[in-house]
Amino acid sequence: MNEQLKIILYMQNGTNFLIRLLITALAVILTSYLLPGVHVENFLSAIILALLLALLNVTLKPLLIIITIPVTFLTLGLFLLVINALIILLADAIMPGFIVDGFWWALAFSVVLWIINSILRNLSK
Fold first, then answer.
1. What whole-number distance in Å separates Cα of residue 50 and Cα of residue 10?
2. Which residues of the chain have pLDDT under 50?
3. Range of the domain at 24
4. Are 85 and 103 in contact (CB under 8 A)?
5. Which of 6, 26, 31, 110 has its CA at a distance of 20 to 30 angstroms from the CA of residue 118?
6. How many domains does the chain have?
């Protein structure tokens, strides 16, 4: 019985990850329609971008947060927005189907993406 529960929980976590990935991809598409300085080629590119952002947020973002703790503290956490924009610009440099026209568009993209993602996740519950 314990093994079956582990398998069910594992499958549920994988399903939840896929649902969150698709919601983020939809949020990426909506955000790119709202912001003229951000371009995503198609929905497949949005899915790949959502996966890339998840990977960068799990690996690189914690390291950047730790390195910039003093600046983040002095700016009362606002520097985290800069870190988010840098992650977006890195994704732009890595992925050919995603184009951001500059730092300010990356900053706007991260904020609008967060808002739309929050709304879509609340609607999906």
1. 21
2. none
3. 2-121
4. yes
5. 6
6. 1
